[in-house]
Write a structure and sequence with these properties.
- The complex is a heterodimer of chains A (291) and B (793).
- With 291 residues, chain A is an alpha+beta fold.
- Helices cover 36% and strands 25% of the residues of chain A.
- Chain A has twelve helices and 14 strands.
- In chain A, strand 6 and strand 7 form a beta hairpin.
- In chain A, helix 10 runs antiparallel to helix 11 and helix 11 runs antiparallel to helix 12.
- The N and C termini of chain A lie far apart (56 Å).
- Chain B has three domains: 149 residues, 2-Layer Sandwich (Aldehyde Oxidoreductase, domain 4); 176 residues, Aldehyde Oxidoreductase, domain 3 (Alpha-Beta Complex), CATH 3.90.1170; 351 residues, Aldehyde oxidase/xanthine dehydrogenase, molybdopterin binding domain (Aldehyde Oxidoreductase, domain 4), CATH 3.30.365.10.
- Helix content of chain B is 26%, strand content 24%.
- In chain B, the strands form nine sheets. Chain B has a seven-stranded mixed β-sheet with strand order 3-7-1-14-11-12-13, sandwiched between helices. A five-stranded mixed β-sheet of chain B has the order 9-17-16-15-10, with helices on both faces. Chain B has a four-stranded mixed β-sheet with strand order 18-28-29-32, with helices on both faces.
- In chain B, helix 4 packs across helix 5, helix 8 crosses helix 9 and helix 15 packs across helix 17.
- The longest helix of chain B has 27 residues.
- Classes of the chains: A alpha+beta (291), B alpha+beta (793).
Chain lengths: 291, 793
């Protein structure tokens, strides 16, 4: 429990917010839904131990809304998961994202938690990260003096580390609409069916032409130190013929890849066989549905 | 159901329902008083340590601190306990479990106190830890309470016939060991209590207290005042499940000590982390069962050896394990039985009363074993149970003859298997060999054969479990209850009992009973605030005894008053001596003359005649007896019976178990409130499913890993699909029209039924709860080496 009080600021637009951030120090943190920040403060997490100022970004119109911009769906950073789940565009064009959002927490959590909030702390178990990675999402970042757009993959640096500077804010997430030839799915394993921190997440997006894998994008969460694309696996798969045998080989290859990235941990004895098993099951169900 | 009832057996909405869902109900932490201070606990991160010194010099002059409370400030007994006085109010010599409190800071800013408490310097020496109960009685084991002479808390046994001879006569012998985990009650409201000093009148306490009279006894002893100087008021309680007893007694005592020293109201309220850290839990059991049986499935001998982890303090262990020793064979008539149950001290969180109270553990073992016997003999789980089931006139393991009530075990079993179509589904799902894959951690990359064909991934299974349960306290102690009833001259009524509303809907149940006896509506009855100064001590609200015992007292009170009213009616309306007066729908009837008056008119009349329309009803249980030496006796005066059928889907790739349906058939005697009874089933089954699949407190170096609900997982509404309650209302002469017990029976069976369903689904038996992901896939539990949460980085 903290003795110091925390000041909370409520900027009404982006430029107000950016000027607050312009001379910000490590003691300033952004808050939107608060599902990470509030519990983090209460639990005395190292990430928030020095926090003295919170900037509530819920009143900033520029970081809200879901719209199509240049064949991309642009999602405002402060859109809640409930907002996203109500959006037909997302449901039709980005079904993996819709599914990942629907698997998060509970209705109450989804009413508050935001999409950018899910990845700005770069927790390994962030449910939307594998999905956003296979969709090749990019992140728009602004400060008072600059504006940049980088891929989510670049943005995510290491466990609880990103490229975001203290004077910056993520404003939008832009997701290219994949061509209709892509099929895919999202998989989440938790210890129970709701309000569950993921043990394993997988996202696969695959373009098959005449039984041959033309392009495949594979990402994992919770089994790797951060949500990440498994590019070695993708390269291995491209140009290969789709059949049961190959799916098993690919799944076992994922096992090898994860051992390489993650090493062996207390949970590996369970997670390793299960991630291979469920990756295989995921590939089979995608194949089934695309027949 | 008796067709003559007008409100009993109907669906009545609980009287506190609207206040609770609209936020109007006042819980313990909602009470605030002028000048109120807070108290914050000082602990050390150790499960076993000798305290060398506590240095407050850095903070003792801080103006945020009104008082520092240590053991030296306790005017009365320094150690307490429900049965044995082994638990210090403040641990000044050593800590024996990580929840132990050394001292307390009192002041008006809780936040500041929580920071200041970190600046108290505690010098302590770590002592060797005992966390494995199986090693607690080893010769070289360090003594946790040296004055106890050993780490043994209690040893109960039951002996019937001669088990060794029984094994000789048996065609088959099976022996298995089962374990169950440490379970948190997980009530939604963490502990909160305020003590208010009343000068010469002692102290008044308002809190989330399950058993106000127990709290009064302990507070009075700790502050060294007579019972009448300690007034305990129960706030609305946000769940208890047996868990707001010892902890709340001790917190009440600490608050009282602080309030008297600071001469201000003092509140203690716990965060979830503190609640899980300090509160007692359900005992982990290690249970060895050896059973001998004939080719036809008749059990000839059963030998049971149980070690219960009592944790750091005795608490309710002697009684919890006593229920286990009485019921450990399950509801079966067995000629030769030898059961030994020992509860031991360890440095784990201490264990005490929790819904089930020593029954969920042996039922998991014993009902798993019954299925194994059936599988061994190639007969169905139904047949093995019918061959051995207790019936009217059967003799239990403790030598008690079951009579004077309907022994409805086979009836609930038949009803359940019919409702769930058990026999067909069980045969269809039965697996000859295990479907789960074996994994070699040295070769973690899967071979082709280890992949599961997609259509085999989800396996369905069905399983059942049955139980009998002794009602109320049995031979644990004196078993009486009282109820105060006062009829106003407009026909409305005040009601209060010495038992407590802990969320189970007791007030509504009692209002229905009084309304039935007086021929009025439950809404006309106002249930008064539970206050130890207003009503006789009725013992604790435990053991699923409130409907049975308190219900008996309420009926007694209502019948005393209705008798007085009937007498007036006869005199005033000049009815003949042999005429019969009855009350129905707020009206008064004479058998000969029909409608005679309104209920309210008769009440007014009684008032004008100076008739006393207030009384205390009383109910005392029939006598039971127990001979601890021989392990024999009529342990309980009556019993209830239940059968639950679980239907599950098991993902053999991930180990996920989804509960598709639980059919819960219970004989609680007469059902008083159908809605309340169904609520008990939904809640009990859900808790039982958590016990089966998710829950368990684990420790690393004696420190708890799961301190909040991000890690201690209980089921959500999405984890269980259908729960179907079915009631068989067996006849009984006790309580209010034969209404007995339901709260605990609903929980005790579920884990066993689910485990048997998983066996049916995957062809493999699991011996260790919970059946979580790792248990199903790997056949063992996995735990991180660190206690810390990942998200705290």
């Amino acid at each position: 429990m903290r003795s110091t009080t925390i000041e909370i600021l409520f900027p009404r637009n982006l430029s107000e917010a950016l000027s607050i951030f312009s001379d910000a120090k490590e003691n300033l943190k952004i808050i939107a839904g608060g599902t990470d920040v509030v519990t983090g403060i209460q639990q005395e997490s190292k990430r928030f131990i020095d926090t003295e100022v919170l900037v509530d970004i819920n009143r900033i119109p520029e970081i809200k809304g879901i719209e199509v911009r240049k064949k991309k769906i642009s999602v405002g950073a402060a859109e809640t998961f409930s907002d996203i789940l109500r959006n037909n565009l997302i449901q039709n064009e980005l079904p993996l994202l819709w599914k990942a959002c629907s698997s998060i927490g509970s209705v109450q959590i989804r009413n508050r938690a935001t999409i950018a909030g899910n990845f700005v702390n770069n927790a390994p178990c962030a449910d939307t990260v594998p999905v956003l990675l296979v969709y090749n999402a990019t992140v728009e970042i602004e400060s008072l003096s600059s504006k940049r757009e980088i891929s989510l993959q670049e943005f995510l640096q290491g466990p609880y580390k990103t490229q975001l500077n203290v004077n910056e804010i993520v404003t939008r997430i832009n997701i290219p609409i994949p061509s209709k030839t892509f099929v895919g799915d999202f998989y989440k394993l938790g210890r129970r069916r709701a309000v569950s921190i993921s043990r394993i997440t997988l996202a696969v997006l695959m373009d098959m032409r005449g039984g041959i894998i033309d392009e495949i994008r594979i990402a994992s969460g919770a089994v790797t130190p951060i949500g990440a694309r498994l590019t070695g696996l993708e390269k291995f798969a491209e140009g290969k013929e789709v059949n049961d045998r190959f799916f098993k080989t690919l799944a076992s290859k994922m096992g090898e890849e994860i051992i390489k990235i993650t090493g062996l941990r207390w949970s590996s004895e369970y997670k390793l066989p299960v991630v291979q098993q469920m990756f295989y099951q995921l590939l089979k169900s995608i194949e089934q549905r695309s027949l | 159901m008796n067709k003559e009832f007008s409100v009993v057996g109907k669906r009545v909405i609980r009287e506190d329902g609207f206040d609770k869902i609209t936020g109007r109900a006042k819980f313990a932490d909602d009470y605030k008083f002028d000048g109120m201070l807070y108290a914050v606990m000082l602990r050390i991160p150790s499960a076993h340590a000798k305290i060398n010194s506590i240095d407050f010099s850095e903070i003792e002059n801080n103006e945020a601190i009104s008082a520092i409370i240590t053991s030296a400030d306790v005017p009365g007994i320094k150690k307490t306990g429900l049965i044995k006085n082994d638990q210090p109010i403040f641990c000044d010599e050593k800590v024996v479990t990580p929840g132990d409190v050394l001292a307390m800071l009192v002041g008006n800013s809780e936040n500041e106190l929580r920071n200041l408490v970190k600046k108290a310097k505690v010098d302590y020496t770590e002592l060797p830890l005992i966390t494995d109960p199986a090693k607690a009685l080893d010769q070289e084991a360090i003594l946790i309470h040296p004055d106890n002479g050993s780490n043994l808390i209690v040893n109960h046994h039951v002996k019937k016939g001669d088990v060794e001879k029984g094994f000789e006569k048996s065609d088959h012998i099976l022996e298995q060991t089962y374990t169950t985990p440490l379970i948190e009650h997980a009530y939604i409201e963490p502990e909160a209590v305020t003590a208010i000093p009343l000068g010469f009148n002692g102290v008044k306490i308002i809190g989330s207290i399950q058993n106000p009279f127990t709290a009064r006894r302990i507070v009075a002893a700790v502050i060294n005042l007579p019972l009448d100087k300690v007034q305990i008021i129960q706030a609305h309680l946000g769940g208890s499940f047996g868990g707001k007893d010892d902890t709340m007694c001790i917190l009440s005592a600490r608050a009282a000590v602080a309030a008297l020293k600071a001469n201000c109201p003092v509140k203690i309220r716990y965060t979830r982390e503190e609640s899980i850290l300090e509160s007692y839990k359900r005992h982990p059991y290690i249970m060895n069962y050896k059973v001998g049986f004939s080719n036809s499935g008749k059990i000839i001998a059963m030998k049971i050896n149980i070690i219960a982890d009592g944790g750091a303090y005795a608490s309710m262990s002697p009684f919890v394990t006593w229920r286990s020793v009485v019921q450990a064979t399950g509801p079966y008539e067995i000629e030769n039985v030898h059961t030994e149950v020992r509860a031991v001290y360890t440095n784990n969180p201490y264990t005490g009363a929790m819904r089930g109270f020593g029954s969920p553990q042996p039922i998991f073992a014993n009902e798993s074993l019954m299925d194994e016997i059936a599988i061994h003999l190639g007969i169905s789980p139904v047949e093995i149970r019918k061959v051995n089931a207790l019936k009217n006139g059967s003799i239990t393991a403790t030598g008690q003859k079951l009579e004077n009530h309907d022994v409805n075990l086979i009836q609930v079993l038949d009803k359940a298997i019919y409702a769930a179509d058990f026999q067909n589904k069980w045969r269809a799902n039965k697996k000859e060999k295990p479907l789960t894959k074996e994994f070699d951690f040295n070769n973690p990359v899967l071979q082709d054969y280890q992949y599961v064909e997609p259509d085999k991934l989800i396996q369905k299974g069905i399983g059942l479990a049955v139980s009998y349960r002794g009602c109320s306290l049995g031979a644990e102690g004196i078993d009486t209850a009282s109820a105060y009833l006062s009829i106003q001259n407009d026909g409305t009524v005040y009601l209060l009992s010495g038992l407590a509303e802990n969320g189970q809907g007791m007030r509504t149940t009692f209002a229905i009973i009084a309304a039935e006896a007086l021929g009025i509506l439950p809404e006309q009855i106002f249930y008064l605030e539970t206050d130890t100064s207003r009503i006789p001590d009725s013992g604790p609200t435990v053991a699923s005894r409130s409907t049975l015992m308190g219900g008996g007292a309420v009926r007694n009170a209502a019948e005393i008053l209705s008798g007085r009213l009937k007498k007036i009616v006869k005199e005033e309306f000049k009815l003949s001596e042999e005429d019969v007066v009855s009350f129905r729908e707020n009206l008064v009837f004479s058998r000969k003359k029909g409608l005679t008056a309104k209920f309210s008119e008769v009440c007014k009349l009684a008032y004008s005649l100076g008739i006393n329309l207030a009384t205390i009803g009383y109910y005392k249980s029939p006598s039971v007896h127990w001979d601890e030496k021989s392990g024999h006796g009529d342990a309980y005066f009556t019993y209830v019976y239940g059968c639950q059928v679980a239907e599950v889907s098991v993902n053999i790739g991930t180990g996920e178990v989804y509960v598709n349906k639980i059919t819960a058939v219970h004989d609680p005697g007469t059902v008083i409130n159908k809605l309340g009874a169904e609520g008990q089933v939904y809640g009990g089954v859900t808790q039982g499913a958590g016990y089966a699949l998710f829950e368990g407190i684990t420790t690393e170096k004696g420190l708890i890993r799961e301190l909040n609900f991000d890690q201690y997982l209980i089921p959500t509404s999405k984890d269980i699909d259908v729960i179907k309650p079915v009631f068989v209302e067996g006849k009984d002469s006790y309580g209010a029209w034969g209404a007995k017990s339901l709260g605990e029976p609903t929980l005790e069976l579920t884990a066993a039924a689910i485990s048997n369903a998983v066996r049916n689904a995957v062809g493999k038996r699991f011996f260790n709860l919970p059946l979580n992901l790792e248990e199903i896939v790997l056949g063992k539990k996995l735990c991180p080496q660190e206690v810390k949460r990942g998200s705290l980085q």
